[in-house]
Write the C-alpha cells for this entry.
Amino acid sequence: MRVSSFMKRLGVKLSLNDPRWGSGKDNKPQANEGKKPGEGGPPDMEQLWRDFNQRLNNLFGQKRPNGNNNNGNDGGDGGPRPGPDLSGGMRATAGAVAVVVALIWLASGSFIVQEGQTGVVYTFGKVSHTTGSGFNWRWPYPFQSDETVKVSQMRVVEIGYRGNIKNKQTRESLMLTDDENIIDIQFAVQFKLKDPVAWLMNNRDEEDTVRQVAETSIREIVGKNKMDFVLYEGRDKVAFETQQLMQQILDRYASGVLISTVTLQAVQPPEQVQSAFDDAVKAGQDRERQKNEGQAYANDVIPKARGTASRLLQESEAYRSMVVENATGNASRFKQVLVEYQKAPGVTRDRMYLDTMQQIFASASKVMVDAKTGSNLLYLPLDKLIAQAAATDAQAAAARAAAQAAANAPPAAASLPNDLVPSVEVNRLRDPRSREALRDRESR
C-alpha cells in the first residue's frame, strides 16, 4: 500500500485497466506516451521506466538536458516534454523524514543508570568519562557507547567447588603443605569493585582473574605452614593472610577489586586418608577429655585435702596450747598448796580431803546414812537427786552424739574438749585412791 501511494504521489500509474491510460493531466490522450512507435496497443514498459526515472530526477532537482530523445517522444516544438512539478512537496516530506530520523538517532544516546551502578561512556572505543545513577545522555552510535557496572554488589568467587562443597574441583582444592602433605581446601572469596574503569579495561575475564589470584595466594600461604596448623588452630590466620596477599596482587594488577572476606568452607585431608585422620582426631579428643576430667577431679580433691590439713593443724595447735596452759596452771596451783602445806600440814590435808570427798559425793548417786545416830528422821535430797539424774542423762546423750559424730568424721588427732580437761586434771589430783589420799589416811 505504501509503494502504491508513493507511486501515485509521483504520478506513475501502472494499472492496465485505468481508463485514462495514455491521457495527460487533463484526460487528453498524449501522442506517444507509453506506446510503442507506430502502434496503439499496450504501453511500453521501457518507456514507463524512463518516465519514472525522469520524474525522480525532477523530484531531486535534476533537469533533463535539451534535445530529442532516441524514442521520438519530444513535443511538437522539438523541446523536452515537461513533467509534473512535485519537487517542492517531496523536498518538504524528505526534510521532515530526515528531522524525525535525526531525532530518533539523538534519542538513542540516552540511557538510565540504576542506584548502586556506575555508567562508563566510551568515545570511539576509549573511555571518556563515568556517570552516576540517574538519566544520562551520550552521543549515539557510532560516536559513543555506554556500559553499566554494578559497583555496590557483593560478588562471590568459589575456589575448590562450584555451588556446593560436595561438587569438588580437585584441580583447585588439592594443595601441598610445608611438611609435604596434601590437603583439600574449599573456600569462597567475597569482593566488590572500587574502580569500574579498571575492572572493565584491565581485565580480560574479570571473575577468572580473581579466581586465579585467590588460588595462587592460598597455595603460597598453605605451602608455608604445617598440615596440623592449617587443619585445626590456624584456619583464621590462613584466611586472613590469604586476603591480604590477594589484595596486594590485585592492586599490583590495577584490577579495581576490593577483597571483603575470605571464608574457608572445608579444610580436610584427601578422601583416601580421611578415615585415618578421623580416628586420630577422635583419639586426640578423648585425650583432651580425660585430661579435663582429671584436672576437674584434682581441683575438687586438692582444696578439700588442704582444708582438712589446715584444720587438723589448727586443732593440734589449740590442743597443745590447752595442755600447756593446764599443766602450767596445775603446777602453779601445786606450788601454792605446797606453800600452805608447809605452813600447816594437818589443816591443809583436812581441807584437801574434804574438798575431794565433796566433789566425789556431789557427782555420786548413792545416799549414805549414819545408822549410829538412831534418829527416826531421815532427810533425803530428792530434788537434787532428780536434777543430778537428769544432768547425767543429758551428759550421756551428748557423749553418744559426740561419739557418733566422731565416727562419721574423718580420723583426726584425738583431742578432749576444753571444758573437760581441767576437770579431769582436778579429778586426777583429787582422786581418793591417789597416793596423797592414801598418805593422808595413813597419817590419820
